[in-house]
């Protein structure tokens, strides 16, 4: 399964004074098993892009080819698409509505028309996959959980549909450092276990650099660049121009390089930075 | 979709209509509505229609946008139309079993339909061309003489301001929640009536939760800024009638005169 987005254009409120070009000719691809990161300044069109990928928004022009179906064609079954593509919205905890957490997670699978047993099994699996204790949480009201727990229950609600592509729109927004780490570990775990495409929007450059195979940068609806984290983060000028920053460790190593310390460029992880600096110090001591 | 609802929305612009004093516009709208109920022949509607047309043209609000606002009431319109058409006795034009259409019925049906359409377009012009804030300011000022008999003018205006302010927010919230549940495979469009009513629960519960959260945040923010009702509050923009407002009053008087003469003569 792969995703190809070709020349996607989206206009909000067409024909009104508030008309706005939200996506302007976006193209990129995602191949099987990849973790794709989408980054961009606030209001750059990331959420708009994601909502096209499962047919919630219709483009003005352009194509989205998932596997071998073009989902922008009329007559494509939306239910089938949503079965394949799971989308977790920004602040997904606001969509919780059931009496108990387990029932809420079961909402998606139920809509797929699965059997009672299958639903129960998936709900248990999804809740455990997001790092919660099924027995402890299943009968509690989703409204009395903590923020981080709510977020996880909401994500479990999409994971339980076993989508072939999992899309998460800023899954860590507004979480404390521990919950942030937990949610990301969980996303990694789900990605590793299913081996499917995962698409992640985040404002945290360190997470993007660490987790993703490919990074897509957009600004005011236009594609700025796409490529491996190394390729993207080595275009420092371009990133700064669109209001993005390097991951902290890269900022640090780049500052060292400016000061004339001879280490590799665009180092994206802390271990490698430590090794390089240690090696430099040893060379210097000789 | 849900964002197509334009009733009560403001359409940004800078026309003379937009710049008129809100009090003038409120009074004009009230007179227009009263006029629609006084009129009892098509000529009167024609006069009202032409005047409304001029106002729309001057305001610069696209006609398509206004007509789109009529969409939600099409059902009501059709309902009253058919009801009037079949229910009124008189000279029979067409009959099939117990169903019959009479000249009088047809006339009343068309009459009521025109009245409703003019009524809705006329009153939506007020909100389309007036910022919610100045609208409620205008209402407050118009109500303030009644303070003596205990009408809480400021409180009423404040509640209206808040309600108007949060209509778009709640629509946006609804849109978001609907999309999120659709992403989980929810289907709002097909199925039996009971099924569809049930499918509203996943939207309504989160919507109420959001509404309460928003209300609580707002109350807290108002208290944090020491809001305490209307007494001795001064305002940043004092409302003053300008030349164009007096011209508008003159035109309004002319309109009234024409309508009164018309209904006496015909
Ligand atoms: N439903 C809508 N109607 C009209 N305009 C919209 C709508 N949703 C988003 N926009 C506009 O489209 C642009 C892109 O918005 P989008 O939500 O895709 O940005 P984003 O990259 O997800 O931002 P953030 O990082 O803040 O989530 C913004 O300028 C926004 O104002
Ligand atoms: Mg967003």
Q: What would you say this structure looks like, in words?
A:
- The complex is a heterodimer of chains A (about 290) and B (about 270).
- Chain A contains twelve helices and ten strands.
- Chain A has helices at about 45-55, 80-85, 100-110, 115-130, 135, 145-160, 175-195, 205-210, 230-235, 235-240, 250-260, 270-285, and strands at about 5-10, 20-30, 35-40, 60-65, 70, 85-90, 165-170, 195-200, 215-220, 220-225.
- In chain A, the strands form two sheets. In chain A, strands 6-7-8-3-9-10 form a six-stranded mixed β-sheet, sandwiched between helices. In chain A, strands 2-1-4-5 form a four-stranded antiparallel β-sheet, with helices on one face.
- Chain A starts with a strand and ends with a helix.
- Chain B has a domain at about 1-130 and about 235-265.
- In chain B, helix 8 packs across helix 10 (about 200-225).
- The interface of A and B includes residues 82, 89 and 158 of A.
- The site of adenosine-5'-triphosphate (ATP) has 13 residues of chain A, from strand 2 and helix 1.
In brief, what are we looking at here?
Chain A has 286 residues and is of the alpha/beta class. Chain A contains 12 helices and 10 strands.
How is the topology of this model organized?
The complex is a heterodimer of chains A (286) and B (266).
Chain A: E1 3-12, E2 20-30, E3 35-39, H1 46-53, E4 61-66, E5 69-70, H2 78-84, E6 85-88, H3 101-111, H4 116-129, H5 134-137, H6 147-159, E7 165-169, H7 177-194, E8 197-201, H8 205-211, E9 214-219, E10 222-227, H9 229-233, H10 236-241, H11 248-258, H12 270-285
Parallel strand pairs in A: 3-8, 3-9, 6-7, 7-8
Antiparallel strand pairs in A: 1-2, 1-4, 4-5, 9-10
Helix pairs in contact in A: 3-4, 3-6, 4-6
Chain B: H1 16-19, H2 22-38, H3 42-59, H4 63-68, H5 74-87, E1 92-96, E2 99-102, H6 103-128, H7 132-143, H8 153-183, H9 193-198, H10 201-224, H11 243-265
């Amino acid at each position: 399964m792969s995703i190809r987005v070709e020349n996607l254009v989206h206009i909000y409120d067409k024909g009104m004074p508030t008309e706005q070009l939200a996506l302007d000719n976006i193209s990129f691809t995602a191949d099987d098993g990849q973790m794709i990161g989408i980054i961009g300044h606030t209001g750059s069109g990331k959420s708009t892009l994601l909502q096209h990928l499962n047919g919630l928004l219709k483009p003005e022009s352009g194509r989205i080819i998932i596997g071998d179906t073009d989902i922008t064609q009329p007559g494509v079954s939306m239910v089938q698409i949503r079965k394949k593509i799971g989308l977790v919205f920004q602040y997904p905890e606001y969509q919780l509505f059931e009496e108990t957490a387990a029932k809420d997670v079961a909402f998606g699978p139920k809509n797929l028309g699965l059997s009672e047993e299958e639903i129960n099994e998936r709900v248990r699996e999804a809740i455990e996959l997001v790092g919660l204790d099924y027995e402890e949480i299943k009968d509690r009201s989703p409204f009395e959980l903590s923020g981080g727990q709510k977020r996880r229950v909401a994500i479990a609600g999409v994971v339980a549909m076993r989508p072939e592509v999992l899309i998460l729109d800023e899954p860590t927004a507004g979480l404390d450092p521990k919950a942030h780490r937990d949610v990301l570990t969980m996303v990694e775990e789900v990605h590793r276990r299913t081996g499917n495409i995962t698409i992640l929007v985040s404002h945290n450059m360190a997470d993007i650099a660490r987790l993703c195979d490919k990074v897509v940068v957009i600004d005011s609806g236009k594609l700025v660049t796409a490529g491996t984290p190394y390729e993207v983060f080595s275009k420092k000028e371009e990133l700064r121009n669109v209001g993005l920053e390097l991951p902290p460790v890269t900022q640090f190593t780049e500052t060292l390089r400016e000061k004339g310390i001879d280490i590799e460029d665009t180092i994206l992880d802390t271990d490698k930075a430590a090794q390089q600096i240690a090696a430099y110090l040893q060379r210097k001591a000789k | 979709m849900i964002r197509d609802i334009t009733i009560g929305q403001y359409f940004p612009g800078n026309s003379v209509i937009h710049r008129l004093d809100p009090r003038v516009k409120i009074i004009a709208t009230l007179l227009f509505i009263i006029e629609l109920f006084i009129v009892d022949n098509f000529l009167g509607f024609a006069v009202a229609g032409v005047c409304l047309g001029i106002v729309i043209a001057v305001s610069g609000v696209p006609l398509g946008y206004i007509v789109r606002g009529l969409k939600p009431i099409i059902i009501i319109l059709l309902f009253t139309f058919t009801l009037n058409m079949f229910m009124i006795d008189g000279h029979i034009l067409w009959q099939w079993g117990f169903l019959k259409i009479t000249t009088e019925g047809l006339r009343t049906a068309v009459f009521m339909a025109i009245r409703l359409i003019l009524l809705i377009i006329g009153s939506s012009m007020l909100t389309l061309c007036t910022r919610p804030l100045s609208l409620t300011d205008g209402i407050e000022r118009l109500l303030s003489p009644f303070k003596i008999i205990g009408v809480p003018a400021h409180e009423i205006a404040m509640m209206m301001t808040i309600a108007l302010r949060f209509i778009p927010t709640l629509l946006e919230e609804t849109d978001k929640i609907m999309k999120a549940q659709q992403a989980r495979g929810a289907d709002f469009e097909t199925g039996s009536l009971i099924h569809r009513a049930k499918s509203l629960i996943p939207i309504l519960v989160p919507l109420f939760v959001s509404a309460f959260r928003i209300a609580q945040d707002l109350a807290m923010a108002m208290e944090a800024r020491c809001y305490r009702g209307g007494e001795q509050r001064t305002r940043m923009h004092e409302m003053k009638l300008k030349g164009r407002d007096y011209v508008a009053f003159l035109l309004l008087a002319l309109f009234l005169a024409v309508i009164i003469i018309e209904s006496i003569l015909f």
